[in-house]
Design brief:
Blueprint lengths: L7 E6 L5 H10 L3 E6 L5 H7 L3 E4 L25 E4 L1 H10 L2 E3 L6 E9 L15 E7 L2 E4 L5 E6 L2 E8 L4 E4 L11 H11 L8 H16 L4 E4 L4 H14 L3 E7 L7 H12 L4 E5 L1 H8 L5 H22 L5 E3 L4 H4 L22 H4 L3 E3 L7 H10 L4 H4 L19 H20 L8 E15 L2 E14 L7 E2 L4 H14 L3 E6 L13
Parallel strand pairs: 1-2, 1-3, 3-4, 4-11, 12-13, 12-15, 13-14, 15-16, 18-20
Antiparallel strand pairs: 5-8, 6-7, 6-9, 9-10, 10-11, 17-18, 18-19
Helix pairs in contact: 5-6, 5-12, 6-12, 8-9, 14-15
The chain binds xanthosine-5'-monophosphate (XMP).
The site of xanthosine-5'-monophosphate (XMP) has 13 residues, from loops.
Length: 519
């Protein structure tokens, strides 16, 4: 649990795929909330957390099954408003004396329309057009509502689509107000937090002040070291910490020679010159590329880079005489403990490169001032801290850099070709005004040479793949639907301007089944 002075809303997670969206919608309404798995919410937890309201999420289980997840009964005696969504609605009905039944033609998946019955403050702004589109995804349904509840909305397959016990401020909806396919869902959530008395105290200005105080209290007069990657998260974390403790912070930028064109200069120039941040620039391309040359296994590449990164970082920490804390740009999605119904540990798809393991080895504490934030909030905080918007809006870039965009053996020559092609591609995207619509775009240099004809001669050069995806969090993604004109123009430019490439392809794989990066 994070200790925050803000008004708090508790989201109890029953394992829905979209629980995080509830939190995002609430944060957009300037309400601070945390997601906790149902089995971690004990009466003692509730006592300490002191939520001003509770939301029970959806989930894949069936309340009819024995042993299915439940919130503690104390949730209903706290005296605060409770909103049950989908599974949350059913568990609420079941626990408060109603009944839930299975199927029999009443399952609903996808778009449905709800009609009103009477009026309810929770539904202010709803039903102006007579009915509301909502997103349903349920097999079970409530067959009898709990005592004290009344019906306020029905859909063809959910006679209890919206119910409420107004006196106790308990609300239950069968659909998902948090998803985009419930277009007016935001209004419902806004009404809920308004009636719970939230004042909207979660602003980035307030957060900045609160975070600075917290960093000062944690660090005292000790020293902090930060691995600056040039990405948005570590940059915002570094600037915030610098604002809090000034020269007690030292940033280390490890240039592994796997950066994009001009990137190292841009990062060092900005932080050292514009922000006056104490910054060590380690030029370690030879060490990294030397160790990677000839390596083609993706996991060996990642592990080699991770190991060398820690090596360089430790050396630099020694040079500055050690540090008591390590700063990291960890975000809220990384710390949410999600409910796993499979019971087993999740499979490692790729070993992500970060400075994990270092704090224990070097006996350092962690300073993670972004632990409470979603990515879009980090961007808002970056703007609040005065970072230039072109920097804040930059696409994510992986720690292992171009190494994982160069499948097969890495050579200096290939990296150079890749850097040039990537620069042309990104230039094209910017020129066409598409950069901000795309979550991430890059070139992967393929380990194949193909035959071409250029001028009157034969060419035998590399093929490359362009990748561009839309995504909200990098967990799932779809390929970006460029026009044929754009693709054609970009292919021509890359082949004409980049020596070493004579064929361009476009990757149209979504995630899943693909991943965003090629390795
Ligand atoms: P994948 O390829 O797993 O990538 O679909 C999802 C997002 O994570 C980024 N990524 C990384 N970021 N260290 C990072 O800091 C890594 O090792 C790493 N690997 C992938 C990737 O660029 C995408 O945004």
């Amino acid at each position: 649990m994070t200790h925050t002075s803000h008004e708090r809303l508790l989201i109890i997670d029953f394992g829905s795929q979209v629980t995080q969206l509830i939190a995002r919608r609430l944060r957009e309404l300037q309400v601070y909330c945390e997601i906790h798995p149902f089995n971690a919410v004990t009466p003692e937890f509730l006592d300490e957390f002191k939520p001003r309201a509770v939301i029970l999420s959806g989930g894949p289980a069936s309340v009819i099954d024995t042993g299915s997840p439940r919130p503690p009964a104390e949730v209903f005696t706290l005296g605060v408003p409770v909103l049950g969504i989908c599974y949350g609605q059913q568990v609420m009905m079941q626990m408060l004396g109603g009944r839930v039944e299975r199927g029999h033609g009443t399952a609903e998946f996808g778009r449905a329309y709800v009609k009103p019955e009477g009026s309810l403050p929770l539904l202010a702004g709803w039903f102006d057009g007579g009915r509301e589109q909502v997103w349903m995804s349920h097999g079970d349904h409530v067959s009898e509502i709990a005592p004290g509840f009344e019906v306020y909305g029905t859909s063809p397959n959910a006679p209890y689509a919206i119910t409420a016990d107004v006196a106790r401020r308990f609300f239950a909806v069968q659909f998902h107000p948090e998803v985009h396919h419930t277009p007016n869902g935001r209004a419902l959530l806004k009404n809920f937090v308004t009636l719970a008395g939230f004042t909207g105290d979660w602003t980035m200005g307030a957060y900045r002040e609160h975070a600075i105080e917290a960093i000062r209290a944690q660090v005292g007069d000790k020293r902090v070291i930060c691995a600056l990657s040039g990405g948005v998260d570590s940059s915002v974390a570094a600037i915030l910490i610098h604002e809090a403790i000034g020269e007690q912070l030292t940033c280390v930028f490890v240039d592994h020679g796997l950066m994009r064109k001009g990137e190292a200069d841009e990062v060092v120039g900005m932080f050292r010159d514009a922000y006056n941040l104490p910054l060590i620039h380690c030029q370690e391309a030879d060490r990294f590329i030397g160790a990677l040359e000839g390596v083609s296994d993706p996991e060996v590449k990642r592990k080699t880079i991770g190991r060398l990164f820690i090596e360089v970082f430790e050396e630099q920490a020694k040079v500055i005489g050690g540090a008591d804390f390590l700063a990291q740009g960890t975000l809220y999605p990384d710390v949410i403990e999600s409910v796993s119904f499979s019971g087993g540990p999740s499979v490692t798809i790729k070993s992500h490169h970060n400075v994990g393991g270092l704090p224990e080895r070097m006996n350092m504490g962690l300073v993670e001032p972004l632990r409470e934030l979603f990515k879009d909030e980090v961007r808002a905080l970056g703007r609040e801290l005065g970072l230039p918007s072109h920097f804040i809006g930059r696409h994510p870039f992986p720690g292992p850099g171009l190494a994982i965009r160069c499948p097969g053996e890495i050579t200096r020559e290939k990296l150079e070709i890749l850097r040039e092609a990537d620069a042309v591609y990104i230039d094209q995207i910017r020129k066409h005004g598409l950069y901000d619509e795309i979550w991430q775009a890059f070139v992967a240099l393929l380990p194949v040479r193909t035959v071409g004809v250029m001028g009157d001669g034969r060419s035998y050069d590399y093929a490359c793949a362009l990748r561009a995806v839309t995504s909200v969090d990098g967990m799932t993604a779809d390929y970006y639907p460029f026009t044929h004109e754009f693709l054609g123009e970009t292919a021509t430019r890359i082949i004409n301007e980049v020596k070493g490439i004579n064929r361009v392809t476009y990757d149209i794989t979504s995630k899943p089944p693909g991943t965003i990066e090629w390795e």
